[in-house]
Design brief:
The complex is a heterodimer of chains A (505) and B (496). Chain A contains 18 helices and two strands. With 505 residues, chain A is mostly helical. Chain A is globular and about 65 Å long. Chain B has one domain. A two-stranded antiparallel ribbon of chain B has the order 1-2. The chains are: A mainly alpha (505), B mainly alpha (496).
Chain lengths: 505, 496
């Protein structure tokens, strides 16, 4: 069988799951289990795909192509590169966890809900594997529709405003991207991402950047972030901040940087400056946020700034670090949002002032939150540390100022994360924390512990991703070489080696 | 002396689609007198359905059998694939509209006449689609317009129906007069009636800057603009769409627009190629005006029918971009765009009709609350139609917009692409507003008085029509290649 079917299968399996859930008249409980089954089958399918993928070989793998309409040379073209394999893996795992959490928490109108979650899975996987510009846009938009419903129907009291902001921001960006896609595709004569060459137009580049910068989000386009992350149910927030934001980072890497070497070089400075601003601003606001979700939402803004720094450093260290950090942050953010959801269910509030003292008598919650928090604040030895260090080392070669800002933000990360941990777990019990607030139940642990376990594995072995992302990759023009020429660079290379040697098994 | 009268050879096959519909209309007049009142509704609907289905089949055969376009009946009409494809679109819209009409609460006394007029309107449109000279152009236009004037006013018990008919008659009469005057001026300038002869004469005599001809051209564009409800000729649209019985609105919004736009393309490209530098800019300007007026006015509507009326104005704008592009890609884009657009338009109005009959009052965004959950099929279809109008993927509306923008870019009009993209962004607000109303707000907010006798049973005919429209909307996204091939063949009848 053509191995490309595996890629198509990864898109179609969740879509088929969605149709099954929508059409078959299942009982509410059976609906959740069926959806979870499909999500787990999707994870298994991904493991199969990863096992067949040759991380040492260059070029697109597990590819499949079928003409869609020939007069403009648009085709259904999908395939995997090294880094997209990791991002898809993170996606299917986080979505499975999110669906599992929803099954445990229980949602009204389950058939519609789980169908949309599965549809979302298929659309996100599609974005990561699309190798045709128009197909990329199709999946990109297809992703928005289930999200719109998931936030708008099952969200909190402010959901109408939240969805309006979310959709207006995202669509404004997306439509600029559509204009760019049309101009780029027609000027190249093909919409195929693999076949098409590079382009030098700043305007087309900015169209793409607008879409990605809104979705990520990049400071100052983050106005939708707070409302959306707060009004969504916990697992949808987990998917939004964990996975959907990575789609934007992937877009930077796969299209903006790989197809526009000239504009990337021209406009790198403003983008890096905005990313650095977002990093500091997000960290500061996270530190001052009065509630759990605010902290996680703004830390997400900060982390996306950091990832963008790594990407637009455009060198091996930065890119590898960025991909590792995308996976890390996907897992961390999803775990934190699910934990926030678990805490809110017990205390009916996410206000940090009303929480506190939850460590006493709740060892599982305390352990999991502590572990995730410690990894999130990039304690040396953690996966996040490896990612952030590589990013900072990479961006140092572009300008030491960015690395300095990044290092400062790492300190801020420690501050807001420790504040969160202590506000929830330590101090005296807050007014909303009663004896009725139980420890994490086995079902919740089954959902959350695997995510934390994966983070621990990545902490022990970050090279699993950093050394297996770019052997198979599209050509990235004018990428800076890793060979350090300055003394400072040599020092950094040395320290990177030391760091990796210290962590590798 | 015997007076020898030359009668032209008549190609009956080329006339088959309008003939099938004419026959169905005539049969329905017999139904009105011969069939007892109790059975009339069913029989009349089936006769109308057979007429439209016959026209569809005839047009499909005609499409297959006419690879080389040529004039027939003394070049009065064109037998080509462009006309055949348009006739297929009109007939398809008619079939869907009959599904939506079936349970329309209208008094039984005029029901057969209703279907007769619907068939005749369709006949006029399929005839107009093949028009080859200025006479048949005007004849076809008046033929379907008069049928539609009556259809708008046919439901005397419906508040606003008569008013809608009168408004349409007066404003539509004005539009027809413009068209007729324009035709007269063009004939006066060139002495030719046939579209291709006009182009020949203009070229031979170097008339392309002739004041008479250019004025005539402007009036022709205006006259067709009325029927396509493009701004600034759109004033009648919201009132008429709102006041007319909803199934009539559904048919009108799809088929009239389709045929008016195709005719505009045919006339401009065939008769006025030398004036392209004038009319491309004019059409582009009309497109921009339609996009602006339609989108901005739709933002503030509460009545769903009015909102859809403004949305149809804005879609006229999108399709005019394709005409303004004046290239083969643009023609293809227009013909492709019409297929999902007509399905979405009839489908959306059919859903509105269903809700109207449930509530027995005009549908607003407020009383749509909870509708999506109560009627899953209609709700999901409406979501697809709205997303399709807004140009979301997984609907043909996306591919249509993509083609339209591509055509504009190919002409070198990137600014027009930007205008189109901006208009799409604005349109999201009101299209998603319908979805928000149907799904995000619980129906308890409504506090409706219960309908006497409970809400009506689901209507199978209407649901089938909506489901068919859904299949076309989504199917045209996946099956782009065959549809675009058909559009390409049809567009090759023109001079590109």
């Amino acid at each position: 069988m053509d191995p490309g079917w595996l890629t198509t299968g990864l898109i179609l399996l969740p879509v088929a799951g969605a149709l099954v859930v929508w059409i078959l008249p299942l009982r509410p409980f059976a609906v959740g289990s069926t959806a979870l089954l499909f999500a787990l089958a999707e994870v298994a399918l991904w493991i199969d795909a990863a096992a067949r993928f040759d991380f040492g070989q260059g070029g697109l793998q597990l590819a499949q192509q079928q003409s869609w309409f020939s007069d403009l040379d648009v085709s259904y073209h999908v395939g995997f590169y090294g880094f997209s394999m990791w991002l898809v893996g993170m996606t299917v795992i986080v979505l499975a966890a999110a669906i599992g959490y929803a099954v445990w928490a229980g949602r009204e109108r389950p058939r519609a809900y789980y169908g949309l979650m599965l549809l979302l899975t298929g659309a996100i996987v599609g974005v990561f594997v699309a190798e045709d510009l128009l197909l990329f846009y199709v999946f990109w938009e297809a992703m928005l529709v289930p999200l719109y419903f998931l936030v708008g129907v099952w969200g909190g009291a402010g959901r109408l405003r939240a969805t309006l902001l979310f959709v207006i921001y995202t669509m404004a960006g997306s439509l600029l991207m559509l204009a760019s896609i049309i101009v780029l595709g027609l000027s190249q004569g093909t919409f195929d991402l693999v076949e098409s060459g590079t382009n030098g137009s700043d305007w087309i580049f900015l169209g793409f950047v607008a879409a990605f910068a809104v979705k990520a989000p990049i400071f100052p386009l983050h106005a939708w972030l707070r409302d959306t992350y707060r009004e969504s149910s916990a697992e949808v927030s987990a998917v939004l901040s964990g996975v959907v934001s990575k789609v934007a980072a992937y877009g930077f890497l796969r299209i903006a940087i790989a197809k526009f070497p000239g504009p990337t070089a021209d406009l790198r400075t403003p983008i890096l400056v905005l990313a650095a601003c977002g990093l500091v601003y997000g960290s500061l606001v996270a530190f001052r946020s009065p509630d759990l979700r605010g902290v996680i939402a703004y830390s997400s803004l900060a982390q996306m700034g950091l990832i963008t720094l790594g990407l637009f450093a455009v060198n091996d260290l930065g890119l590898n670090g960025a991909v590792l950090q995308m996976v890390n942050h996907g897992l961390i953010s999803a775990t934190l949002f699910l934990l926030a959801g678990a805490i809110e269910r017990r205390t009916t509030t996410g206000e940090l002032g009303a929480l506190g003292g939850m460590a006493r008598g709740r060892p599982a919650l305390a352990t999991v939150l502590m572990a995730t928090g410690v990894i999130a604040l990039a304690v040396p030895g953690s996966a996040a540390f490896a990612g952030e260090f590589a990013i900072l080392a990479g961006v140092f070669r572009t300008g030491w100022g960015y690395a300095l800002v990044g290092a400062a933000a790492m300190v801020l990360a420690a501050m807001y994360m420790l504040r969160l941990i202590s506000a929830v777990l330590h101090r005296s019990p807050g007014p909303s924390v009663t004896e009725a607030a139980l420890d994490l139940r086995p079902a919740e642990l089954t959902v959350i512990v695997p995510l934390v376990a994966l983070l621990v594995v990545l902490s022990a072995w970050p090279a699993a991703i950093t050394e297996r992302s770019f052997a198979s990759a599209p050509q990235i023009p004018n990428k800076g070489s890793v060979i350090a020429t300055t003394e400072a660079g040599q020092l950094l290379m040395l320290s990177k080696e030391l760091a990796e040697r210290g962590q590798s098994p | 002396m015997i007076l020898a009268l030359d009668t032209p050879q008549i190609d009956w096959a080329a006339l088959a689609p309008p003939l099938a519909l004419l026959a169905a209309g005539g049969a329905n007049l017999l139904v009105a007198v011969l069939v007892p009142r109790g059975d009339r509704r069913v029989v009349a609907a089936y006769v109308g359905l057979v007429g439209f289905a016959g026209a569809l089949v005839a047009a499909a055969i005609l499409f297959d059998q006419s690879p080389d376009g040529h004039g027939v009946i003394a070049d009065a009409i064109q037998r080509d694939r462009l006309g055949a494809l348009t006739a297929m679109i009109v007939a398809g819209s008619g079939i869907l509209a009959i599904g939506a009409s079936y349970r329309e609460p209208m008094s039984d006394s005029h029901i057969a006449e209703y279907y007769a007029l619907l068939a005749w309107a369709g006949a006029g449109m399929t005839f107009l689609a093949t028009a080859g000279n200025l006479m048949t152009l005007f004849l076809g236009l008046e033929w379907f317009s008069i049928s539609l004037y009556i259809l708008c006013a046919i439901d005397r018990e419906l508040v606003g129906s008569l008013e809608a008919g009168l408004k349409y008659l007066i404003v539509g009469g004005f539009g027809s007069a413009m068209l007729l005057f324009g035709s007269a001026l063009v004939y006066g300038a060139t002495g030719a009636l046939e579209f291709h002869r006009i182009a020949q004469v203009v070229q031979q005599q170097g008339l392309s800057d002739d004041a008479l001809l250019v004025t005539g051209l402007a009036l022709l564009i205006g006259g067709l603009g009325f029927k396509a409800s493009a701004a600034p000729f759109h004033m009648w649209t919201p009132d008429v769409y709102e006041g007319a019985p909803t199934p009539v609105t559904a048919f009108m919004s799809a088929a009239t627009k389709a045929v008016a736009l195709v005719l505009m393309l045919r006339v401009l490209v065939t008769a006025f190629p030398q004036e392209a530098r004038l009319w491309t800019v004019t059409v582009a300007a009309i497109a921009c005006a339609s996009l602006a007026v339609g989108n901005l006015a739709a933002l503030v509507q509460r009545s769903v029918k009015r909102m859809l009326a403004y949305s149809s104005i804005s879609h006229a704008g999108f399709m005019l971009i394709a005409i303004a592009a004046n290239n083969a890609l643009g023609a293809r884009a227009l013909l492709y765009y019409l297929i999902p657009y007509c399905a979405m338009s009839v489908g959306a109005f059919a859903v509105v009709a269903a809700r109207e009959r449930e509530l027995n009052r005009p549908v607003t965004l407020d009383n749509l609350a909870g509708f999506g959950w109560e009627r899953p099929l209609l709700g999901v279809s409406m979501v697809a139609f709205m997303l399709g109008f807004a140009g979301f993927p997984l609907t043909g509306g996306f591919v249509g917009k993509f083609y339209v923008f591509s055509a504009a870019y190919e002409t070198g009009w990137t600014w027009l692409v930007i205008v189109g993209v901006a208009a799409t962004a604005v349109s999201l607000y009101y299209y998603l507003g319908v979805i928000r109303a149907m799904y995000f707000r619980p129906s308890e907010e409504l506090q409706l008085a219960p309908v006497v006798g409970g809400s009506p049973a689901p209507e199978r005919a209407l649901q089938t029509a909506v489901a068919a429209a859904l299949v076309v909307t989504v199917g045209s996204f996946f099956a782009v290649q065959p549809l675009i091939d058909a559009a390409k063949k049809a567009a090759s009848s023109l001079l590109f």
